[in-house]
Amino acid sequence: MDYYVAWLIPISPLIAALICTVMAVTKTGRNYAHLPAWCALTIAAAASLLLLNRVSVDESVSVFGGFSWLDVARVRVALSIQLDAISLILITVVTCVSALVAFYARGYMHNDPGYARFFAVFSAFVASMSMLVLADNLFVLYAFWEGVGLCSYLLIGFWYKRPAAAKAATKAFLVNRIADCGFLLGILLLWLQVGNVASPTQGTFSRLDYVVIFNSVELIAAQNPNMLALIGALMLLGAVGKSAQFPLHVWLPDAMEGPTPVSALIHAATMVTAGVFLLCRMSPLLVLLPDVLVIAGWIGGITSLLAAVIALFQHDLKRVLAYSTVSQLGYMFMAVSCGASSNLMSAAVMAALFHVATHAFFKALLFLSAGNVMHAMGDEIDMRKLGGLRRVLPTTHILFAIGAAALSGVPLLSGFWSKDGILSLLSLMSSNDVYGGSFTVLLLIGYATAAITSLYTFRAFFRTFYGKEVIPKSAGSHAHEMPLGMIGPMVILATGSLFLGIVLAPTGIMSRYLQKIPFLVPMEELPHGWAVPVLSAFLCGAGFIVAWITTRPASKNLWFGATGRGFARFGENRFYIDEAYSFCFIKPVEWFASLLAAFDVLVLDGFWKRVSRLPDRLGDIFRKLQSGVVSNYAGWMAFGLVALLVIVLFGEGF
Amino acid sequence: MDNINLALAVVFSSIAICGALGFILCREPVHAALSFAVNVLSGAGLFLLLDAPYAAVATVIVYAGATIIIFLFTLMFAQRSTLQIYDKKKSNPISSALAAASLIAILIYGISRDSRPTDIVSSSGIGISTGEVNSTPESPEVPKVSDLGRVMYTQYLWAIELAGAILLVATVGAIHIARDDSVPEPETASNQP
Amino acid sequence: MTNLYLFIGAIIFGCGLLGFLSRRNLILMFLSLELMLFGVSLNFIAFGKLHGNLGGQTFAILILTVAACEAALALAMIVSLYRSRGSLDINVWQRLRENDSPSKRTDAITMIPSDDSDHQTENSYGDLPKLTPAGHDPLSFPVEVDSRQEPAGLA
Q: Which of A256, A504, B17, C52 is the most buried (most CB within 10 A)?
């Protein structure tokens, strides 16, 4: 029974994607393209909720064999589904959030000429993401990792006629290439290493099955620790790219060029968490590599602080949320890095996944609220050009407030619990013998980020919904609240944002999942204390108050006055990281490319043009034979006859 | 006997080559055609020396008679009173001469390289027979015309019939090609109301 | 003294070839062909004598037949060609040449045009595709008026 239910999760969105593709291509019934997507995603969400129960079943890992792509001798390429605590938690989040966003997108995308295309790619994304999460094999994971990357590319560039969208799509794709290249290298190296230690009867392809990998990592670590560290670092690179961590974070804010439901689902809730998922998946490997984990922690810490500071100075509401996403993903990286102490690894994974889950809900909610604002304001999202919208968009105002509160960690909301889990782990690690110093700094970064998160979130909230009512001209006269079809899914997300934490964390459900994390030293429950939540609640309150004060119309100059102006401009320009990349990497490559182009034109082309002139010249010579004069033709025939006779008479020796 | 034959062969050969050279060298087309006739007639004499009287007579009739006469008629029909530039100026004289000379040289080399005894000047019989060319029984006699006819209508029947068919086709083709389309057919013209 | 006939045949064949290559008068070119055929038939008869059978003579007679056919067809063609151009110069017919190769007929242009040049000249084939000459880029080669077109009226 569970077998079929499990396979429903990836297959039903795939079928929906095919149906929507047919609709998009044949242009029949395009306005009903949401129906197959809705059905499929509802089925997938229901299936994953059904399966979530399995976590409490005794066996922590169950693999459902699927079908084999290829079966030649020892190469058996098979698609199978692995259900365990990690994949079940994430698949539930993915399918539920994507179903809700799909319901929302019906209203958001209606009348778009690419309506059917949107739902086709959307469903394809969910199918790929499901297989990514459910795969039992690292290579299958990689295949669908690229699959979600492709869907992300297609959806960022959904409005491909807009140059900015096309450019952003290309940027996302290229930046991810850097990371995926490393990831693939890591996979291949791992494949080689497992091949060295695995039993000779082990199938070639199934060497990358998680079970096989994790059974051989300790042997590899004993034989070839440096290689294992390299593999871990390459995997980390892949995760950094997909999850938009510093220094590869630049693609995610630009990815907001896509439709808002896409930003909510792919670039906030699900796909960007694939990097975190990868680290969790590979935790039995990474737990042997504390140094790599500490690097991951530093990357996460730097990213979360940097992105939070940049988010402070953004004027575009969606960009604030994008940088917030980057920052929160950094938080998740920090959480995973706490596995540097091996007995904490399962807790670290759990904390990261918990934050992934809660973040998916409240960030999707925030993005959809921003989408409402954008929709009502006629695609205007710059907070300098709008304001005081709480009367125009009353429901959205409340929903945004819920999301913002959850994000900034207002006590008892979901974000509070998950952030608390991470900060508790960090504080626990800060007293570690070996890595205590690093983690003390990371803990401080975590607190600072928490405060700044609260500050920028509420600043965005106040700037959008409070103050003098400003409605941009592009909104026209019909700025109105969204219909129920769009508000409904948001209410469910808001419910999740409000209660997910309190349902899971204090009731012990989390701990039950925690004990089922496979291949790791089990832990009874997440560490918690009193000091951390109190401090983070205090910081959240401080951020809220500062935000409220600085956004009052009367206190305009309080926000980075004359002295801080330079820093603010620095932040508005995103610390010039894009420009720095452009100068350090893109420009040199362009110069080098133009050098190569010159080489190509002058040397290679020059050479081959001369070579190609040879047949040209030969042709010119022989062309003269084509004189049209009968006598000449006959003469050539005569000479040919003579030559033939010469060959016949003198050619006997040859 | 041999000496007479040899002398005749040399005389006829000389005349034939002179005729051929005359054909090449004469500017006036009519002179060239007449040189051609001389060449063919002396060639017919060579045929006689080669015990081929039928071929000799046929050559005289067909070449020297029909062909030359018809060509001369055509020349008269197309020829202007004055010598045309295309008769005065040869095309590629040097390279043509080179091609022809080298061809003749290589042919003569090829013929003379063959060291087998091929003295066929004596008409007293057969010089040599490899015997594999065809299955005609070798006869010590000089073959008569009736022998030739027998061979042609038995062994080479298909070839001869084919030649007849080619003649017929050529006749039809020649009539078609030479027809002047600009002149309406008499009956077609009379049928017009 | 051996092979005299074969030598004579070869020389006559070579003379015929020389005539065909160097002559420009259509009629004489075809006569050259006849000369070549005659040289070949002399060879055949000599071979027949050599082998002591009548196959050579039979072949010579076949060649005679072919020569007669050829003469008939050639004369028909010459008459037809002469009608269209009013000249017996072989170089008048140069349609197969490349566009930029020299025309040989500068000296033949003084001929008297035939009366029916309107419907028998190359102009009636004007809709044939014009190919780019070999060795030229088809795109960059300028489309030019076919220089081979006959002047409409040669007065």
A: A256
Query: Which B residues, 63 through 122, put their C-beta within 8 Å of a C-beta on chain C?
Result: 63, 66-67, 70-71, 74-75, 77-79, 84-87, 89-93, 95-97, 99-101, 103-104, 107-108, 111-112, 114, 117-121
Upstream peptide bond of A247 is cis (omega within 30 degrees of 0): yes
Q: Which residues, listed in sequence order, are joined to residue A63 by a DSSP beta bridge?
A: A82
Q: Does A649 touch chain B (CB under 8 A)?
A: yes
In whole angstroms, what is the distance from residue A300 CA to residue A303 CA?
5
SS (H, E, C) A405-456: HHHHCCCCCHHHHHHHHHHHHHHHHCCCCCCHHHHHHHHHHHHHHHHHHHHH
C-contacting residues in A 599-628 (Cβ below 8 Å):
616, 619-620, 623-624, 626-628
Q: Is A532 exposed, middle or buried (0-12, 13-18, 19+ CB in 10 A)?
A: buried
DSSP 8-class letter at A266: I
Q: Which of A279, A281, A137, A284 is nearest to A218 (CA)?
A: A284
Q: Which residues contact A402 (CB under 8 A, 6 or more apart)?
A: A362, A365, A413, A494, A497, A498
A470: three-class secondary structure by DSSP: strand
Q: Look at the block and give the residue holding tokens 């921003």.
A: A370
Residue C128 to residues C102, C139, C144: CA-CA distances in angstroms?
21, 19, 14
Q: Is A638 on the interface with C (CB under 8 A)?
A: yes
What percentage of chain B's residues is helix, strand, coil (to nearest 5)? Answer: 70, 0, 30
DSSP-assigned letters across all residues of B34-103: HHHHHHHHHHHHHHHHTT-HHHHHHHIIIIIIIIHHHHHHHHHHH--SSPPHHHHSPSSHHHHHHHHHHH
Site from B95, B106, B111, B114 to mutate, A interface, most A CB atoms within 10 angstroms: B106
**Distance from CA of residue A480 to its chain's centroid?**
32
ipTM above 0.85, yes or no: no
Within 10 angstroms of residue A143's Cβ, the number of other Cβ atoms is 15
Q: Which residues of A touch B91 (CB under 8 A)?
A: 629, 631-632
- Chain A interface includes C91 (CB < 8 A): yes
Helix (H, G, I), strand (E, B) or coil at C155: coil
DSSP, res C144 = -
A209: helix, strand or coil: strand
Selection from A223, A197, A207, A265 nearest residue A75 by Cα: A207
Q: Is A642 on the interface with B (CB under 8 A)?
A: yes
Buried b (16+ CB within 10 A) or exposed e, C128-151: eeeeebebbeeeeeeeeeeeeeee
| Helix (H/G/I), strand (E/B), else coil: A82 | strand
Successive 10-residue mean pLDDT values, chain A, 654 residues: 82 90 82 86 89 68 75 77 84 90 86 85 91 88 90 88 87 88 91 81 79 84 87 90 86 85 84 89 86 90 89 85 90 88 83 89 89 82 79 86 88 85 84 82 88 88 82 73 82 86 76 75 70 84 84 66 68 76 83 88 85 85 78 88 88 65
pLDDT, tens digit, for every residue of B15-36?
Answer: 999 999 999 888 888 888 889 9
Residue B9's nearest CA partner among B121, B126, B124, B142 is B121
Contact: C65, B163; criterion CB under 8 Å: yes
Task: Decide if B67 contacts C33 (C-beta within 8 A).
Answer: no
Chains interfacing with A (3 or more CB pairs < 8 Å): B, C
For A522, list phi and psi in degrees, rounded to 5.
-70, 155
Cα–chain center distance at A136 = 20
Task: Mark out chain B residues that contact chain A at CB-CB < 8 A.
Answer: 91-92, 95-96, 99-100, 102-103, 106-107, 109-110, 113
